[in-house]
Amino acid sequence: MKASRLAAAGAVAATxxxxxxxxxxxxxxxxxxxxxxxxxxxxxxxxVPNERDDASTTKLEVNxxxxxxxASVMPEPVPGWxxxxxxxxxxxxxxxxxxxxxxAVTKVTWTADGKGIEPGYFEKFPVSVGALPEDTDTLVxxxxxxxxxxxxxxxxxxxxxxxxxxxxxxxxxxxAAASEDGHHGSSATxxxxxxxxxxxxxxxxxxxxxSSDTTARVLGVVGIVVxxxxxxxxxLAGRRRTAA
Length: 244
Description:
Blueprint: H1 2-21, E1 29-32, E2 42-49, E3 57-63, E4 72-75, E5 81-96, E6 99-112, E7 122-130, E8 138-140, E9 142-147, E10 152-155, E11 172-174, H2 188-193, H3 195-206, H4 211-243
Antiparallel strand pairs: 1-2, 2-7, 3-6, 3-9, 4-7, 5-6, 8-11, 9-10
Helix pairs in contact: 1-4
């Protein structure tokens, strides 16, 4: 009886761990590769998961903030996707590298040339941006995700302090403080010129999307192993009692 209970408990534990390790939601998000320091440049990844079982993501439109316009926006080519950059006149000119800018990139659109992001997959869309503003802690990028069945999901809702996360939150980039020595981080060009940095960037790209994904996988495997051991122990104990 005790062995049977142990087996059942193991199976329940395995199921619980797998369920808890599964993400509750999969939103369009933005994360920097390294630090996105105020006043500096950074490469940021727009991570787009496919949340549908019967359609592929075929288009992504990301609107760049106009309250804190970015002087430099350079998307990295993504195989299988066509990129379109939209520039608009600025209501207030900004200064970058000693020059007054009267227009800036306000939207980047990726359109699939082929199948796009199929069910069960995600894609990252890297963009080099800068100089990052020094008078805010966050940048909000409202995004539209279009599926092959013509459905459009609008990731445009901004999180309000004290409220629960909205159903379709807009991607938010958290900005880090500039270093005390006055450096704001290296530019994408500097990183590309540094072999060590390029190697680190390649390793980062090959790694899982985030540490939570890795943790979830590890917990899931541990739970399954515990369940299998419990079931095996129960079967063995039952055989011993029958033999006796």
